[in-house]
């Protein structure tokens, strides 16, 4: 199937129009027209080869909302016309213990990423959602609740599940005391998810600039991390901290904020951190952990939860030909809080 998208041809080239072929439908495949695609920091890192594993040409995008246009003969979960979603994965071995436990993100054979990953059958490199069409295995195609605004759903497929999964893993619910460090694309979703689950939510930020925004999003309190007195008073006051800071940073101010047996969960920074002190971990049986998106069943659970609670990200809609400017703005945190590409713009002439 011929399609069009935007691709990076090298680490230092801007994304530009690109024509390529999607695979023909296999028996268990779903084909879709992409309606909206979210813009994730991972897209920027991959396009620019910040992690050193990009294969070019690279079509990013793993927060995908579409309409089914065709299905293979073995497909039972979706039909033509359905509104569906695809997140960060499009395949896994389906046979290991993690796949059987609904945690395909930890597949023993390695999951197949929605882009920049070899197809399990052909070895062709997957191309993502910055394009007009997608073909994906049925088991990795999700249903979208009818109550949700399609134009704002896309970031749930990465930012949403990345923050929902650790909240569920560490049993957050009514009475839980949750802090969210950093309030960007991930952080604002962590606030909404934790509030939806019934927790008492505090946003931690270096300055008070985002206090009004945090409270508007549903947070109960705001803690300025540069205020030593306030941080000291907040010691041992949280059960879970969701750390969404996307750069190398110091955990030492945050760990003492956890109560005994509390957990700080890293979901932002992929890579090195400043050297941590083990003292508060040992003295308070506190934990520092990481979390990677979520499995397919949990992602569907998250979408259904958002449908019931009407939880959606705050989005700025852009045209496809505005993606390079969006990348530049995202690096400066100049977005409230996620960019979403309207794929209808891909049919229009570029300016």
**Average pLDDT over all residues:** 96
Total beta-strand segments: 17
CATH class of the largest domain: Alpha Beta
Share in β-strands: 25-35%
Q: What's the helix-strand series?
A: EEEHEEEHEEEHHEHEHEHEEHEHEHE
Number of helical segments with 4 or more residues = 10
Low-pLDDT segments, ≥5 res: none
Largest sheet: 7 strands, mixed
Helical/strand content category: alpha/beta
How does CATH name the architecture of the largest domain?
Answer: Alpha-Beta Complex
Domain count: 2
CATH evolutionary superfamily of the largest domain? Medium-chain alcohol dehydrogenases, catalytic domain
Helix content: 10-25%
- Rg to the nearest angstrom? 20 Å
- End-to-end separation: 26 Å
Q: What is the global morphology?
A: globular
CATH topology name of the largest domain, in short, is Quinone Oxidoreductase, Chain A, domain 1
How would you explain this protein's 3D organization?
The protein is of the alpha/beta class and 351 residues long. The chain has two domains: 2-158 and 294-347, Medium-chain alcohol dehydrogenases, catalytic domain (Quinone Oxidoreductase, Chain A, domain 1, Alpha-Beta Complex), CATH 3.90.180.10; 159-290, Rossmann fold (3-Layer(aba) Sandwich), CATH 3.40.50.720. The chain contains ten helices and 17 strands. It has helices at residues 41-47, 97-100, 150-153, 159-169, 185-196, 211-216, 228-233, 279-284, 296-309, 323-331, and strands spanning 2-7, 16-21, 29-39, 64-71, 83-86, 89-91, 112-113, 133-137, 142-143, 177-181, 200-205, 221-224, 238-243, 258-266, 287-290, 315-318, 338-342. The strands form four sheets. Strands 3, 4, 5, 8, 9, 16 and 17 form a seven-stranded mixed sheet that branches. α8 links the parallel β14 (258-266) and β15 (287-290). α4 crosses α5. The longest helix is centred in the last third of the chain and has 14 residues, at 296-309. The radius of gyration is 20 Å and the shape is globular. It starts with a strand and ends in a 9-residue tail after the last strand. The model has no long low-confidence stretch (mean pLDDT 96). InterPro entries: ADH-like_C, ADH-like_N, ADH_Zn_CS, CAD-like, ER, GroES-like_sf, NAD(P)-bd_dom_sf. Keywords: Metal-binding, Oxidoreductase, Zinc. Pfam families: ADH_N, ADH_zinc_N. This is NAD(P)-dependent alcohol dehydrogenase. Its cofactor is Zn(2+).
